[in-house]
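Quick one, tokens below. Sequence please?
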């Protein structure tokens, strides 16, 4: 009995080692170090049992406070009549890994980001995000209502985990040609998730339209330009870009 138990243990160790080798081999590691890999894998298992469990996910309440007011941004500030009332579209986004970005400086806008930035509508960006989630590169779709009364705030929830520690969130600045408010913020710190974080929200230009005033006629850009920080004079004060709002993340 003891012999067969030992043999069983050996077989398990061997197969664990083989599995570890296989996994490493897939990552094009040299096969010669397979023995070291096997013992590394076992050492990791042992230390994992001894360590207190680190949180692997977190959920945040996110509150958006607008700062895009006539007092802060007087240049050609859209009139506040019912038709052209300045507002932010609903926020939309997800936590993600490095294989997916809702938006990225220097990268062409996806059709979903372009449409969000020009029309404020979540569809088809929501489909793009859900596709990224299905591929394992996003975690969960987050959405909020639009914000039309700037004496108010709007709040929503965002989930992150170890594999998707950064939250990317966007909302259209409306009216505008293709300008949006956006953040992409890593909520992990020292191997855990921060208790709270306040982030200045800057204006971006999605690159889908060449209009350069709030009420510019549709001027579809072809080819598209890369998404970039919005350098329009509408968002500058003393030559420096000013935040259009604040997002405060508070861990639930
Ligand atoms: Ca543009």
């Amino acid at each position: 009995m003891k012999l067969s138990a030992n043999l069983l243990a050996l077989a398990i160790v061997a197969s664990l080692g083989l599995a570890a080798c296989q996994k490493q081999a897939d990552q094009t590691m040299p096969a010669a170090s397979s023995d070291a890999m096997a013992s590394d894998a076992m050492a990791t298992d042992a230390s994992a049992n001894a360590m207190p469990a680190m949180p692997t996910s977190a959920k945040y309440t996110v509150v958006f406070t607008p700062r895009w007011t006539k007092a802060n941004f007087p240049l050609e500030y859209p009139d506040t009549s019912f038709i052209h009332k300045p507002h932010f579209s609903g926020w939309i986004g997800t936590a993600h890994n490095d294989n997916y970005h809702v938006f990225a400086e220097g990268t062409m806008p996806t059709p979903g980001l372009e449409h969000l930035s020009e029309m404020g509508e979540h569809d088809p960006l929501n489909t793009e995000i859900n596709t990224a989630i299905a591929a394992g590169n996003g975690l969960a779709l987050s959405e909020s209502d639009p914000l039309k009364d700037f004496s108010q705030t709007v709040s929503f929830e965002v989930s992150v985990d170890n594999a998707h520690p950064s939250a990317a969130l966007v909302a259209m600045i409306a009216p505008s040609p293709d300008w949006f408010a956006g953040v992409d913020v890593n909520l992990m710190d020292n191997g855990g998730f921060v208790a709270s974080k306040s982030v200045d929200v800057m204006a971006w230009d999605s690159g889908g339209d060449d209009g350069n005033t709030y009420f510019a006629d549709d001027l579809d850009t072809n080819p598209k330009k890369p998404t970039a920080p919005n350098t329009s004079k509408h968002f500058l004060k003393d030559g420096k870009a000013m935040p259009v709002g604040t997002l405060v993340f508070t861990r639930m």
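The mean pLDDT is 84. The radius of gyration is 24 Å.
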